[in-house]
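wait is this the right file?? whatever heres the structure
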């Protein structure tokens, strides 16, 4: 097993065992016990959710947090809910995934040249992580950025992911002031010191996709921009 794959696997074991936020652990377990009626026969994951993808990926996708009845149920990022249906359909059409659906951890989904992570690894109540919870989880993202050797593009899904990623980078020298970097859907930002190019999209939440704030066409354009950059 290549070094990056070994180190990522070790890190994800630490993520799964994490108990830094007792309130989030309790919430994940509560959801896993009470369940949603349509999933009453499912065994919920109910723990911090590990990242997922190709250890040699050039594209890193940064989401928000596991869904209470999606990733918190299935144990894999963006799996088992409508956000995942939207995301993986787009990734498959762009060549970053081998199939357009993601139902459970054993459904055969593979990511190609793509790695998916999140600034928070536990499902938060009302899908609203607190700044303190994000801070406690930040070291896992920092370590992933250190381990992944070939990332050339980062896709931030939503403003929280955008802010969390820039907060990690801001601790480095010669990083520009945050006021010069603004989130907007479709934005593509060149960062200093050879850092990966930063792309932005609205988060594929059910609220955004059902209201038309984010359409498949809009998301596909962002992915086309990323493919053009990686191919240049």
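ok assuming it is, sequence goes like this
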């Amino acid at each position: 097993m290549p070094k990056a794959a070994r180190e990522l696997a070790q890190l994800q074991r630490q993520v799964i065992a994490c108990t830094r936020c007792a309130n989030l652990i309790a919430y994940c377990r509560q959801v896993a016990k009470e369940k949603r009626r349509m999933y009453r026969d499912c065994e919920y994951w109910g723990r911090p959710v590990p990242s997922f993808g190709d250890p040699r990926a050039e594209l890193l996708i940064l989401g928000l947090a596991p869904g209470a009845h999606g990733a918190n149920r299935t144990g894999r990022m963006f799996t088992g809910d409508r956000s995942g249906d939207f995301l993986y359909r787009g990734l498959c059409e762009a060549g970053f995934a081998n199939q357009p659906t993601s139902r459970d951890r054993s459904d055969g989904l593979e990511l190609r040249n793509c790695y998916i992570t999140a600034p928070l690894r536990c499902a938060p109540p009302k899908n609203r992580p607190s700044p303190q919870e994000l801070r406690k989880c930040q070291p896992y993202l920092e370590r992933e950025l250190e381990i992944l050797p070939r990332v050339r593009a980062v896709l931030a899904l939503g403003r929280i992911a955008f802010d969390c990623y820039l907060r990690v980078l801001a601790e480095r020298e010669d990083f520009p002031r945050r006021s010069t970097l603004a989130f907007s859907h479709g934005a593509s930002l060149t960062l200093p010191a050879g850092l990966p190019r930063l792309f932005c999209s609205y988060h594929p939440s059910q609220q955004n996709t059902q209201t038309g704030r984010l359409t498949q066409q809009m998301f596909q354009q962002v992915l086309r921009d990323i493919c053009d950059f990686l191919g240049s």
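Helices lie at 3-16, 22-34, 71-74, 82-93, 131-147, 159-169, 206-210, 216-231. so i think its the right one actually
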